[in-house]
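Reminder to self: tokens first, then the designed residues, so the page reads top to bottom the way the pipeline ran.
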């Protein structure tokens, strides 16, 4: 079990996946909140039936899977529905994150969650690492990667906490506006050495 947990977050297009992949190559267990969020609404899960009851059968695809695009559109335009869905899914996601963290075998583990701060997951971690970029970088990266319009990406950015709020919650900030993969790897290596020291101190207590 990892007694030391890092919470990694950042806005859309900040490079969270690239950074977590580097940590993973260094032997660190990664707990991905987005993957867990997809798993808890898989075909056959009770949660999928509850979503169908609340929103309607048309939110389920003919193959029995969740129509994620339609659900995403619904909760972006309706705060009450967003709150209902969050109240259903967040306890399940939190429970699975806790379970995976307790099962981790690496010296420390990382919970990567775009909404780490918004969803109160900071209470599960010892330290918060923010992957930080400016808004223009978020827009350019995400429109190129996902073929979304700037308006769509801006709506996602606006739905997340501001850059300033993330920085205020951060114990560590990794600037990733124009880093080469070599520079990024070097920065992650420095953080890795620091986290190994922190985890060793906790384990001695």
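Designed residues (205 positions):
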């Amino acid at each position: 079990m990892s007694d030391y947990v890092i919470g990694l977050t950042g806005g859309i297009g900040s490079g969270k996946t690239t950074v977590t992949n580097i940590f993973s190559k260094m032997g660190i267990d990664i707990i991905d909140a987005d993957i867990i969020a997809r798993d808890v609404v898989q075909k056959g899960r009770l949660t999928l039936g509850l979503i169908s009851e609340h929103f309607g059968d048309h939110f389920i695809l003919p193959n029995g899977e969740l129509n994620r695009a339609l659900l995403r559109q619904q909760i972006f335009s309706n705060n009450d529905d967003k709150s209902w869905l969050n109240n259903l899914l967040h306890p399940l996601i939190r429970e699975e994150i806790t379970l995976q963290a307790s099962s981790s075998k690496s010296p420390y583990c990382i919970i990567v969650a775009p909404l780490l701060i918004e969803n109160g997951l900071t209470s599960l971690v010892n330290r918060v690492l923010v992957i930080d970029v400016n808004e223009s970088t978020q827009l350019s990266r995400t429109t190129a990667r996902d073929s979304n319009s700037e308006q769509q990406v801006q709506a996602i950015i606006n739905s997340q906490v501001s850059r300033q709020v993330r920085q205020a919650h951060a114990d560590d900030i990794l600037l990733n506006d124009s880093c080469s993969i070599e520079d990024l790897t070097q920065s992650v290596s420095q953080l890795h050495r620091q986290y190994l020291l922190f985890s060793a101190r906790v384990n001695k207590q």
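The chain has a mean pLDDT of 92.
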